[in-house]
Amino acid sequence: MSRSQIRSCIVALFLSFSLCRGAEPPNIILIFIDDMGWKDIGCYGNTFIDTPHIDQLAADGMRFTDFYAAGAVCSPTRCALQSGQNQARIGITAHIPGHWRPFERVLTPLTTMALPLDTVTVAESLKTVGYSTGYVGKWHLGGSGFEPSVQGYDFTSVISGPHLPGRYRVLDKGGAQPRQGQYRTDFEADLCVDFIQENAERPFFLMVSPFAVHIPLGAMSQKVEKYKRRAAERDQDLPHPVYAAMVEHCDDMVGRIL
Fold first, then answer.
1. Which of the ends of the chain has fewer CB neighbours closer than 10 A, N or C?
2. Cα–Cα distance between 180 and 150 in angstroms, integer?
3. Which part of the chain has CATH 3.40.720.10?
4. What is the C-alpha to C-alpha distance for residues 203 and 25, in angstroms, rounded to an integer?
5. What gap in Å lies between CA 138 and CA 202, rounded to an integer?
6. CATH homologous superfamily for 3-70+114-257?
7. Residues recognised as catalytic
8. pTM above 0.85, yes or no
9. What is the pLDDT of residues 195-250, one digit of tens each?
């Protein structure tokens, strides 16, 4: 299938939703939380970690209970989300830059080092029908020359580094900077809210991809202590109170965006 045919199919899909509703094109927000386990949120049965905003989103929408990822690691999943194609078609079959070990009995193929620039992304497709496009957070689909800014995104704030204040940085030159002492997902939420407000008069597509809950684990001390206390009160073993706190940080971000 050619590049123009792929773009036409994606645009037709989104337009069909709008025409069926007889309304203006919908705003689209895609939230991609890195490495979160499906059993770590309330709507899938977790009773320990507080995720009220994600749970409400599930209650008002749809849950996928029999869903499998073809490449359940970072870059392949991101490749599929951006392109709508199977990761193997593009060649991104492992996290970039790959994890090739010549001493292993089963060797994996070398992975493509970036999302090719001729790949039609969802952002490029939506721009052809008047959407404003934004990307916030972790990219992991290539470095210099392969950023989201050259893959169809009007506004980008690519962020790198761990979660705690002072340990992450904004890669976009001249981009907004976090406040002193600001946790990474809180900063990412600020960027998303600003983008939504600035594009209130036109349809927009926003993808937000926090680094949480990916290792290295890190969360604000108040939330960590909350889950330590909860585990003690329930006489429940909790191997990673920091991880539990990170899940709630993500839920806070979702609540602010929605």
1. N
2. 30
3. 3-70+114-257
4. 6
5. 25
6. Alkaline Phosphatase, subunit A (3.40.720.10)
7. 74, 140
8. yes
9. 999 999 999 999 999 999 999 999 999 999 999 999 999 998 888 999 999 999 99
